[in-house]
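User: Reviewer 2 asked us to show a designed sequence for the structure in our supplementary figure. I'm pasting the structure tokens here. Could you produce the per-position amino acids so we can include them in the response letter?
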């Protein structure tokens, strides 16, 4: 018999003022006994929803950011802390891990910390367990460049091939995917790797995307839509004669498999469609590129069906490169790019017509001679409400033979732009280069910028980072992302990659630590530091669930989370239609989740009733998650007549693993049916039916790879019924 323990992605480190020896079972950790055929759970009163089947697939996980591991742990609660763990992760041989007490606490997904805290909350161990902290994320040792974790290799080139021009996609805070130029075979193609643990490890780092229509591939662009589908665009080209098109392939299973390659810019056999970039917004996909060799214009295309069909290409500008499409408020759409200045074109009808290009910022450009190629390709972004437009770029305005990174913003839909603010904190006139900046905005409106930086001197280039909490007016002290700076003596591409989610900022870049002419791709991340975030909200309503009998007595339950960085005490209120309500005061540490129990509710009347659960925290920075609505259908007990809906909605089980499942529904009479799946963010993830159907039983296939994972709602609407069922989908 083996013992398995469900662990969070980062180890918990316990400390106490008095010595004590505590077994896992005493702490109430979930221990699963595997007798070869099934798993038996102990301490089932603690987070029962966490129990998932143990799957031998090395990439299977019961939840984003969780790890299934065979573990033997001894925790010594003493002034000198020792935590010894023998574990096996995804086929990696057993190893001994010693967690020293000096490791700096960082934020993690909080699951293990919550488990321990809840287990000891009312136990005799509580006096000996004054605090629970998280060790460095994903077991990374402390480095000399906090707060970023030790660099993780993302490309797997054992030779001296050049990997450069990184692109990064993110979904659900823990799924990452990256791309880059890659010439390990002697000619350029584009590489790909994916991570399902927020970048701690990368799968398939030796994957090359190759379009057989041309000899080479380059200029990778990765985007991820709201369902977790990866869109990989790149330029497929020939060097002589110079010609090429932008192609696209999509993956609905986070990069395990890919659909057919679609040529998005066909019909220009004499041009090379250079430096493409794309943006996804719902069903709309926007693509821009530079038509090199014929018109030398900057081009734009739009798809309204998630990349299946595309409009004709239209010209949005001339001269320059590095086009960047991005959305504004309403139907505003922008394309920005760089030359010896920053230029912008705007459409107020989502790209049907354009107002004309204009210069928004002048960029003196005299970088001098460097072993790597330089450019001033800008990176654009917006505030979360899209009312503020942002741009970062590099230029030589402070001195010739050097470049610095600057930021500017517009608060009037791109008409006027602020005086550029310097982001890097090097001395003016030091002759160093800060270049290839990339911008990301997190859900709390913090602006993040990462860039290449030669401040170490002697052509040594490192990756650096800064952030702003005041819309770019001021910038934090610069932090080195890479473990060190490395001698660079070759082509480093033309752009960089940075993304941010609610927990971390993620950076993917190339550097030359393996040789001055051998760039390879590395990844690092950091928890959001230096920022006080106050954000609590509702994750799901557990009870009353779906359908209950009239007269039943139900204890309403809701799951709430503290996404912030500080401990919070706040009221949680639950309403069932206007006739019943209850409030509970919840105290929740930063990063943790709890199930709130309300007073009993009696289902007195039949019908469909709305359930609304809300949190109320003064100063909450993200009110979007403060309210969650659901519904419950109260039906007469068996044998009692009463009004009935004309439809029934069934699911194949309360929890679905990866792969397709069947959603069944029944119509008592012909009717128009709309059947949709909503994600945890309230957005539609899939439409399973929308049309007139005959009476009888019907079914639809729900592919988990299309909708992602988490707590979903399946909603069925007919003229006489509005039914909702919860569906918990495991990670792929």
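Assistant: Here is a per-position design you can include in the supplement:
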């Amino acid at each position: 018999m083996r013992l398995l323990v469900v662990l969070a992605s980062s180890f918990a480190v316990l400390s106490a003022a008095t010595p004590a020896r505590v077994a896992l079972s005493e702490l109430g950790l979930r221990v699963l006994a595997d007798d070869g055929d099934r798993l038996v759970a102990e301490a089932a009163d603690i987070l029962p929803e966490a129990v998932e089947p143990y799957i031998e697939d090395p990439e299977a996980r019961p939840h984003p950011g969780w790890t299934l591991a065979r573990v033997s742990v001894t925790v010594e609660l003493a002034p000198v802390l020792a935590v010894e763990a023998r574990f096996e992760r995804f086929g990696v041989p057993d190893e001994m891990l010693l967690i020293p007490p000096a490791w700096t606490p960082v934020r993690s997904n909080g699951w293990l910390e919550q488990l321990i805290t809840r287990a000891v909350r009312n136990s005799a161990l509580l006096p000996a367990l004054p605090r629970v902290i998280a060790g460095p994320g994903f077991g990374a040792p402390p480095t000399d460049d906090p707060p970023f974790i030790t660099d993780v290799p993302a490309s797997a080139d054992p030779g001296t091939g050049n990997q450069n021009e990184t692109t990064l996609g993110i979904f659900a805070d823990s799924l990452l995917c990256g791309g880059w130029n890659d010439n390990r075979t002697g000619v350029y193609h584009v590489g790909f790797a994916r991570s399902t643990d927020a970048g701690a490890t990368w799968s398939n780092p030796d994957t090359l995307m190759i379009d057989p229509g041309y000899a080479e591939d380059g200029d990778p662009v990765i985007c991820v839509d709201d369902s977790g589908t990866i869109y990989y665009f790149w330029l497929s080209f020939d060097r002589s004669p110079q010609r090429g098109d932008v192609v696209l392939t999509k993956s609905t299973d986070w990069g395990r498999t890919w659909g057919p390659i679609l040529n998005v810019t066909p019909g220009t056999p004499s041009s090379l469609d250079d430096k493409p970039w794309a943006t996804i917004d719902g069903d709309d996909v926007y693509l821009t590129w530079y038509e090199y060799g014929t018109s030398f214009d900057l081009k734009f295309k739009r798809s309204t069906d998630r990349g299946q069909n595309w409009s004709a290409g239209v010209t949005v500008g001339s001269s320059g490169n590095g086009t960047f499409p991005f959305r504004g408020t309403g139907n505003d759409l922008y394309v920005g790019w760089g030359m010896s200045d920053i230029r912008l074109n705007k459409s107020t009808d989502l790209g049907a017509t354009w107002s004309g290009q204009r210069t928004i910022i002048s960029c003196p450009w005299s970088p001098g001679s460097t072993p790597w190629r330089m450019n001033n390709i800008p990176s654009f972004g917006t505030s979360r409400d899209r009312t503020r437009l942002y741009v970062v770029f590099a230029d030589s305005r402070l001195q010739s033979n050097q470049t610095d990174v600057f930021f500017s913003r517009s608060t009037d839909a791109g008409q006027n732009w602020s005086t550029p603010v310097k982001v890097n904190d090097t001395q003016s006139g030091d002759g160093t280069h800060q270049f290839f900046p990339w911008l990301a905005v997190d859900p709390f409106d913090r602006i993040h910028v990462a860039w290449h930086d030669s401040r170490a001197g002697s052509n040594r280039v490192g990756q650096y980072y800064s952030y702003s909490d005041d819309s770019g007016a001021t910038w934090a002290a610069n932090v080195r992302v890479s473990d060190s700076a490395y001698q660079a003596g070759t082509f480093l591409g033309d752009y960089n990659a940075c993304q941010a989610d609610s927990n971390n900022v993620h950076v993917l870049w190339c550097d030359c630590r393996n040789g001055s002419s051998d760039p390879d791709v590395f990844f690092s991340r950091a928890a959001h530091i230096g920022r006080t975030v106050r954000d609590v909200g509702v994750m799901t309503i557990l009870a009353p669930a779906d359908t209950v009998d009239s007269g039943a007595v139900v204890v309403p339950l809701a799951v709430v989370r503290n996404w912030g960085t500080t401990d919070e005490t706040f009221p949680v209120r639950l309403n069932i239609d206007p006739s019943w309500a209850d409030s509970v005061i919840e105290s929740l540490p930063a990063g943790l989740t709890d199930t709130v129990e309300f007073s009993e509710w009696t289902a007195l009347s039949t019908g469909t009733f709305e359930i609304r659960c809300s949190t109320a925290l003064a100063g909450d920075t993200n009110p979007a998650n403060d309210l969650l609505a659901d519904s419950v259908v109260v039906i007469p007990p068996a044998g009692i007549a009463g009004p009935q809906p004309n439809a029934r909605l069934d699911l194949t089980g309360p929890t679905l693993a990866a792969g397709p499942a069947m959603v069944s529904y029944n119509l008592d009479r012909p009717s128009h049916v709309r059947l949709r799946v909503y994600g945890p963010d309230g957005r539609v993830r899939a439409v399973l039916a929308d049309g007139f159907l005959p009476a009888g039983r019907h079914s639809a296939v729900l592919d988990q790879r299309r909708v992602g994972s988490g707590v979903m709602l399946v909603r069925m609407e007919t003229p006489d019924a509005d039914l909702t069922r919860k569906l918990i989908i495991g990670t792929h």
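For the response letter, you might also mention the following. The chain is about 0% helix and 50% strand. Confidence is low (pLDDT under 50) at residues 1-146, 639-644, 652-658.
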